[in-house]
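Narrative of activities, Objective 1.

The group set out to show that a structural description can be obtained from nothing but a protein's sequence at a throughput compatible with the screening campaign. Below is one input-output pair from the validation batch, recorded exactly as produced.
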Amino acid sequence: MTSAVPGPDGRLRCPWALSTEDYVTYHDEEWGRPLHGDDALFERLSLEAFQSGLSWLTILRRREGFRTAFDGFKIASVATFTDADKERLLADAGIIRNRAKIDATLANARLLADWPAGELDTLIWSYAPDAAKRPVPRTIADIPAVSDESTALSKALKKRGLRFIGPTTAYALMQACGLVDDHLSDCVARGKA
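Output recorded for this entry:
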C-alpha cells in the first residue's frame, strides 16, 4: 500500500509521478484535469491507444513528435491522410511505429470526421461517474485499472466503430482527461480541476 510521497519540493504526490521531471510536470499540470473538445479528446484517445503495452513516459516524451506527425490531432486533417501519409508515419522515428495503432488512429479519425461537432466530447463525458459517489483513493491499491464506466465507455465507442479502445485504455483516458480524479487523498494535485 503506497500512499502519496514527498516530491523534490517536499509536497506530497502520487508515487508514480516522481520517477522523472516529465512525470512531475504531467502529474501536476495535466493528469486528472478536465479536458474537453473533440480534437483534444481524439489526441488523448489516440495516445492512450499508442501507449497500450508501453510505458506512458515513452508516449509523453514523444508527444510533440506525435502532434507533428498527426497534424496536431485535428480530426478533419487526419481523416484525409492517404496511404502515403501512412507510410510516412511508419517511417517516423519520432512516434511509435506500430502499424495496427497507426491504422486504428487513421480509421478513428475518418469515422469521427463524420460525427457532428461536439459529439465525441459529449459521448465520452456522459460516462463520467458521480464524483460524490466515488471513494477517494488513499493508496495506489485503491485505484482500479478498469471500472463499470470505463467498460461501458469502451463498449459504446466500439459500437460506434472506434478501434483500439478496451476498458483499461478507456479508464486511462478517463483518468487523463479528468472524468475521474485518481490523485491520492493527500496528493497536492487532488481536486485541482
